[in-house]
Specification:
With about 110 residues, this protein is mostly beta strands. It is built from 1 helix and 9 strands.
């Protein structure tokens, strides 16, 4: 399964509160049909093969049944990110099954006010 492409922009030093995301059902690809009983993890890395994690995004599940979620990051955490065009993805774990429904670029825009 190729993840859907979804780019995000984070303004350095601001609280990031992303748009509402409605994931497609993963049932046809061996995954869950909803988010009940799943765990979610989202990370930002310098490159797709980087060992180190630049930051973790909080994943707020809005509706398990409707597969709706939102990505978030505290202002203190976004302040630690360097300006750049990084990579991120979202991993859903359901028992022993892991799926990555979304991935893309994470553009960090330099803030001015500290």
């Amino acid at each position: 399964m190729t993840p859907g492409e979804y780019d995000i922009e984070i303004y350095q030093g601001d609280t990031y509160y992303g748009d509402l995301i409605r994931l497609p059902s993963l049932a046809s690809r061996g995954g869950p049909s909803d988010l009940v009983g799943t765990t979610q993890k989202a990370e930002i890395r310098e490159s797709k093969d980087s060992v180190g994690v630049l930051a973790e995004l909080d994943v707020e599940v809005i509706s398990e049944g409707d597969r709706e979620l939102r990505l978030k990051m505290d202002a203190d955490d976004s302040l630690e990110l360097e300006e750049g065009n990084w990579y991120w993805d979202l991993e859903i774990t359901w028992g022993a099954i892991k799926k990555t429904p979304l991935a893309g670029r994470a553009r960090v825009i330099a803030g001015v006010t500290r």
